[in-house]
Amino acid sequence: MAYKKEEHFDPHITDALMAHYRSSLELLGEDADREGLLDTPKRVAKAMQFLTQGYNMDARQILEAAKFHESYSEMVIVKDIELYSLCEHHMLPFFGKAHVAYIPNGVITGLSKIARVVDTFARRLQVQERLTHQILDAIQETLQPMGVAVVIEAQHLCMMMRGVQKQNSVTTTSAFSGQFEAQETRSEFLRLISSKLN
Ligand SMILES: Nc1nc2c(ncn2[C@@H]2O[C@H](COP(=O)(O)OP(=O)(O)OP(=O)(O)O)[C@@H](O)[C@H]2O)c(=O)[nH]1
Ligand SMILES: [Zn+2]
């Protein structure tokens, strides 16, 4: 499922968000009528709809539409999938990388679909832990593989620009199912995602 182009956003929602962001500008002490800000409510309305459009995307449908029967039964890893999300506490971005693996059980999917599944759940208000589990659950339920592994490494602007103001902390979350619950398989996955060659 492709991203919606900005011109396809619901105009009623865009209008309501524009009014909201215009009054936010004024509440923050700005002159919403000055030249540089005239189009800002519209830009922010569109940007926020873009950043939350995962609500209109269906990860299971994306995977169902790209299932192929194949006897390959080794680990498939898609690593370094960049992600941008918004923390649900402050609506500030968190961003980083997702590493996703599965061990097929007769069914594989298109590699790009794994990245699309990541985007589907990232483009919402999130906490990193739930994002990690939602990616795992969608792949597990749809492809029914022998196991799924998801690791996300991300930096949270709410911890960098404000609040505790820590610039270098990276949060790592992980979720494992099936064969990845075994130490040996999990270690192989962790070794492969930290390798420069793989
Ligand atoms: N577990 C988890 N916490 C998150 C995530 N994103 C942001 N947070 C945290 O959400 C918490 C919200 O805590 P509160 O005490 O309600 O909010 P706050 O007063 O703004 O907290 P500070 O950020 O410490 O100033 C903060 O500790 C954030 O660091 C996330 O993805 N997962
Ligand atoms: Zn936050």
TrEMBL record:
It holds the Pfam family GTP_cyclohydroI. It is an enzyme of class 3 (hydrolase). Its EC number is 3.5.4.16. It comes from Rurimicrobium arvi. PANTHER family: GTP CYCLOHYDROLASE 1, GTP CYCLOHYDROLASE I. Pathway: Cofactor biosynthesis; 7,8-dihydroneopterin triphosphate biosynthesis; 7,8-dihydroneopterin triphosphate from GTP: step 1/1. This is GTP cyclohydrolase 1. InterPro entries: GTP-CH-I_C/QueF, GTP-CH-I_N, GTP_CycHdrlase_I, GTP_CycHdrlase_I_CS, GTP_CycHdrlase_I_dom. The keyword Glycosyltransferase does not apply. Zn(2+) binds at C87, H90, C158.
